[in-house]
Write a structure and sequence with these properties.
- This protein has 363 residues and is an alpha/beta fold.
- It has one domain: Glycosidases (TIM Barrel, Alpha-Beta Barrel), CATH 3.20.20.
- The protein is built from 14 helices and eight strands.
- The protein has helices at residues 9-21, 23-26, 30-45, 69-72, 79-92, 105-110, 114-123, 126-129, 152-158, 164-176, 201-220, 235-241, 263-280, 296-312; strands at residues 57-61, 98-102, 132-139, 188-192, 227-231, 248-250, 284-286, 316-319.
- An eight-stranded parallel beta barrel has the order 1-2-3-4-5-6-7-8.
- Helix 13 (263-280) runs parallel beside helix 14 (296-312).
């Protein structure tokens, strides 16, 4: 583990003061633990409500030092950097109570002993920061540079029923079992956007069959927290993943320069998704939102539309992306290729708050 980056005394004290100032509303109390357990039990009984996660205000987080899961959770892993950057998040965003972490199966294959221990050390920051975590076990989103993750080709062979146990069960057990009854885990996300590379019904079935095995293994491991799967902004994906989700987690984006050119289609999609969630009696949470832009003011205007629409419907949200990172869509152009999603971070590389991005605190 590297200790090359440390929290400066001034920054630590300033951020710690911000955390302490909001402690009553964000630290994990016994009452909140009981509430989370009740939500989980209710989810299993099918009696949850839409508002169960309306309080969630959080971020997806990728450490600044890596672009691939092998760096994030491999030899470059740096708990000091992670702690410093999450403290910055609490400093700038006092309502921040949730962090969605993307784990790396690739890193586990490389270092099956060390990688889970690194994950456990991040979860141990929960009390100090006053946050809960959404660990995301696998990833189906691929960009440039690639973060790593699953593919249909991989799952067609290794995810099959006769090979699944040897390939995936050791990883799932190493990550999940130590936290089976851990109140610091808000949800378990089985996979981020699993159908992104599945271009036909047969491919989607391969992925869905594998996801069902992952879910079964998590349940067999005794997890108490609800299970979800991060769905793309598509009603087809939401409907396909609902049967294996205790909570419907989806990624509503007002992609102003892509497939959603005005706010109204975005609002219509939210209304359709919410109506579906109510029809199946399951709570909902936006585990990604916050379409990017290179222009800081434009990005803040997009955030106002997205976060305002989610808040109006009583939906909690986990915005993308807390801190400048080398992961795709998390950096300025000088650090790599820029997709249509632009730049999605809220905190700059130097640790300063991105201009206009305190708008998050409005919602």
């Amino acid at each position: 583990m590297s200790n090359k980056t440390d929290v400066t005394r001034r920054e630590f004290i300033r951020a710690a003061a911000a955390v302490a100032g909001a402690a009553a509303g964000t630290r994990i109390t016994h009452a909140e633990t009981a509430e989370r357990q009740e939500i989980s039990h209710n989810a299993a009984k099918g009696i949850v409500t839409m508002s169960d996660y309306s309080h969630v205000r959080g971020f997806n987080y990728q450490p600044s030092y890596g672009s691939h899961g092998l760096e994030t959770w491999g030899d470059a892993f740096d708990i000091a950097v992670i702690k410093k950057e999450l403290l910055r998040g609490r400093q700038y965003f006092p309502k921040m109570n949730t962090i969605r972490l993307w784990l790396s199966y690739d890193a586990y294959i490389r270092q099956p002993g060390a990688m889970p221990k690194r994950f456990h050390s991040v979860i141990d920051l929960s009390e100090e920061l006053g946050i809960r975590f959404i660990p995301t076990l696998f990833n189906g989103w691929h960009s440039c540079p690639d973060f790593g993750g699953i593919s249909v080709e991989m799952l067609g062979y290794w995810g099959a029923a006769d090979r699944f146990a040897g390939a995936f069960v050791p990883y799932i057990d190493a990550i999940v079992k130590p936290h089976a009854n851990d109140a610091r885990i808000l949800l378990w996300d089985l996979c981020n956007e699993p159908f992104n590379s599945a271009g036909c019904d047969a491919s989607k079935k391969v992925v869905l069959d594998w996801l069902e095995r992952v879910r079964r293994q998590c349940k067999d491991s005794g997890v108490n927290a609800p299970i979800a799967v991060g769905a793309t902004p598509s009603m087809d994906a939401i409907r396909m993943l609902e049967p294996i989700s205790d909570v419907i987690t989806f990624h509503p984006y007002y992609a102003w320069n892509a497939w959603v050119t005005t706010p109204q289609p975005f609002e219509n999609f939210l209304d359709e998704a919410v109506a579906f969630g109510k029809s199946v009696g399951k709570p909902m949470l936006a585990t990604e939102t916050g379409w990017g832009a290179l222009d800081d003011k434009k990005r803040s205007e997009v955030l106002a539309i997205e976060l305002g629409a989610l808040t109006k419907r009583g939906l909690g949200f986990v915005a993308h992306l807390l801190h400048h990172t080398l992961v795709a869509d998390g950096h300025r152009p000088e650090y790599g290729p820029i997709s249509g999603a632009g730049y999605m971070a809220f905190v700059e590389k130097d640790g300063s708050l991105r201009p206009h991005h305190d708008i998050f605190n409005t919602f």
